[in-house]
Amino acid sequence: MKRKRAEDEAQTRARIAQATVDLHGSVGPAFTTISAVAERAGVRRATVYRHFPDEAALFTACSSRWLSQNPLPETDQVIAIADGEARLRAALDLVYGYYRPNARMLFNVMRDAEASPALRETLHGFAGWLGQLKEIVKNGFCVQRNAEPGLCGAALGHALSFAAWRALTQEQGLSDVAARDLMCGMVRATIAHR
Q: Are 24 and 113 in contact (CB under 8 A)?
């Protein structure tokens, strides 16, 4: 009896987390209400609050569920590339390849994180992953070119950012490959004119 109840509770919690993922992906966190989450999960508002007493708990569960369905790519293949220019291209291909299928969710979450400290907190893992990728490229590309670390790091941070990818591909209509090539050229030009 206890095990069945625990399984039911876990299923309810999972339904609520998935409902939140679905709503964050479609309308964004700022426009997701507890009533909408409850309706989509097939539970009452009180049930949502029983499982997730505050916004931070709900955002954490949503983020964990979404990342389990859309894991961040491994960076091993980028680390293995010795040539700095090839490493930069591979890193951009990796990150842009992740952005493409996840663009709507990433846009909604990043847009709404500006107004929500609880939501910003859930982005730390993603920001950490991007920071590691930037350091991997910096340790190849920038070091090999004896570039000024701060300037090169800033150029790489911009090139790897979701905002830059979105501006080039979603707003300007470039392909991921064209955006990658443009960003590679921007990084090269930035460190050449220091």
A: no
C-alpha span between 81 and 94 (Å, rounded): 13
Enter the tokens of residue 193. Answer: 């004119």
3-state secondary structure of 123: coil
Q: Which of 185, 37, 25 is nearest to 102 (CA)?
A: 25
Query: In terms of C-beta density within 10 A (0-12 exposed, 13-18 middle, 19 or more buried), how is residue 55 classed?
Result: middle
Residues 6+ apart with CB under 8 A from 151: 190, 191, 194
CB 112 within 8 A of CB 119: yes
The per-residue pLDDT for range 27-84, each reduced to its tens digit, is 999 999 999 999 999 999 999 999 999 989 999 999 999 999 999 999 999 999 999 9
**pLDDT (tens digit, 9 = 90+) per residue, 143-165?**
888 888 899 999 999 999 999 99
